[in-house]
Amino acid sequence: MGAGRPNGSRDLPLAKGMPTRESGEMPLDYCLRIMRDPNIDPARRDRMAQVAMPYCHRVIKTRDNKKEEAAEKAELI
């Protein structure tokens, strides 16, 4: 009991402006559209920016392990 989708949840109404299968809008396009709309609540726009960011910007990996850095430098020599 309690696992899975509750009965009738597929029939719940979507949030206003949310993309549907018929619209053909991709989820990332939806996030960007909401983020760029100045009439939307700023908290919601901030959330959409957080959701879209990993898809638009590369994550730069930081190195904490000096042994790995030393080994890579040794390979270059």
Describe this structure in words.
By secondary structure, the protein is an all-alpha fold. It has a domain at 18-60. The chain has helices at residues 27-36, 42-56, 66-76. The chain is built from 3 helices and no strands. It starts with 26 loop residues before the first helix and ends with a helix.
What's the SSE blueprint?
Blueprint (H helix, E strand, L loop, with lengths): L26 H10 L5 H15 L9 H11 L1
Helix pairs in contact: 1-2
Features of the shown structure:
77 residues, mainly alpha
- Uncertain runs are none
Question: What Rg, in angstroms, do the CA atoms define?
Answer: 21 Å
Overall residue-averaged pLDDT value: 77
What is the rounded distance between the termini? 61 Å
How many strands appear in the DSSP assignment? 0
The assigned structural class equals mainly alpha
Major sheet summary line: none
What sort of overall outline do the alpha carbons produce when their principal axes are compared?
elongated
**Beta-strand percentage range:** under 5%
Q: What is the helix content? A: 40-55%
Number of helices: 3
| H-E string | HHH
